[in-house]
Design goal:
Layout: E1 8-12, H1 16-26, E2 30-34, E3 38-43, E4 46-51, E5 67-70, H2 74-83, E6 93-94, E7 98-104, E8 110-116
Parallel strand pairs: 1-4, 5-8
Antiparallel strand pairs: 2-3, 3-4, 6-7, 7-8
């Protein structure tokens, strides 16, 4: 098998209208397509599919693993989101290689602002 790319990542929601408002108005993601039970959003090079599982009789559960969003400056992006009312889970983390700050959408799905600043071990720049 040869994987060509990641086409989409899914998060579940209990309220599609609320999710659309959060992802488009607060995070500024662009709508790629919209259906009765899901919305697809452009998140960099990946599509983020927000889906209502009740539409196919499946239970809801938030994603605790998180989707990492690369931003130019984590502190600036965090300040912008906090000014819009987004609450973060903890302080911004500096790992010695990157900055990260996690928060949740209205359904509890984890999102992470991320920026690697240190070169990789093989010398590649981030």
């Amino acid at each position: 098998m040869r994987v060509e790319r990641v086409d989409f990542v899914s998060f579940l929601t209990t309220d599609l209208v609320r999710a659309k408002r959060f992802y488009t108005e607060l995070l500024g993601l662009e709508v790629e397509s919209e259906g009765e039970h899901d919305i697809e959003l452009r998140a960099g090079q990946v599509t983020l599919d927000i889906f209502d599982p009740s539409s196919i009789g499946q239970p809801f559960a938030p994603s605790p693993a998180g989707l990492s969003l690369r931003v130019p400056d984590v502190l600036a992006a965090r300040a912008e989101l906090e000014a819009r009312g987004v609450e973060f889970d903890s302080d911004t983390v500096d790992t010695g290689a990157c900055h990260m700050a996690s928060f949740r959408d209205p359904d509890g799905n984890v999102l992470i602002l991320h920026r690697r600043y240190a070169p990789h071990e093989d010398g590649r720049e981030p």
